[in-house]
Amino acid sequence: MPAPGVTPAQVARAALWMTGSIASFCAMAVAGREVQIQLNTFELMTWRSLIGILIVRTVATSRGRLGEIRARRPAEHLARNVAHFTGQNLWFWALTLIPLAQVFALEFTGPVWVALIAPLLLREPLTRSRATAVIFGFLGILIVAHPFGGPPSPGLLAAAAAAVGFAFTAIFTKRLTRTEPVLSILFWMTVLQAGFGALCAFAWAGHLTIPDAATAPGLLVIGCAGLAAHYCLTSALSVAPASVVMPIDFTRLPIIAVVGMVFYHELLDPWVFLGAAVIFMANFYNIRVETRAGAPRSRVNSS
What we know:
By secondary structure, this protein is mainly α.
């Protein structure tokens, strides 16, 4: 059931935005797997970021918002983008090693890691609901990873580590948004990660592969879909609470599982769905508890 006070129109608008987000994430995953036939992850990230610079700059110019791009708090921009660059590289690498559904399932553990890290970097308390979410989140990770089938594969470890990188990214983003415009955060993300990617590509292979007719379309999809996915997700959260948006976002898992089955002949693993369901319920429980706890304060502040 939707959260109290949320109208059907808000739910419909959030669902529409999330349709765009889910489609973008799935397109980025498929394109990322295809592109890596010829490019390594560092080259992929370089070209993706260069496309992102062009898009962000064009949007800022067309809307007269170039003045929002400023070089304040460079240390936190650097920390955020080191975390995101690391997590995104691991995510793209995991796409080539394990089924798409496993990658997406482990990506949903991001809020679990945020709950653990937030007390250190944001000074937010580890409440009972957050601790419960952490415990069951780790249980879900174990189920997805098939602990009784042998040690976890490099792909599973990469996907899990990517979720940690995304958690640090979320925390540094929250810190930056207290003073920095979103457009500025996106601009420095694309600029810094283009530099990181080029440096790592030359250190890894001694050169940067130029896209050809086979890889250029996939890189364009990745560059556009990456920005579109997060824009749609942010827009959905702006019209409806996380307790409404998160269940819609969870449909990414069955959708990408079907994509993996149709295009890559990947089996529908029931353990992945069970583990992902446990992770989802842990996160959803925490969101609902904190939403209810904050409701009385919100009513007092609005009166």
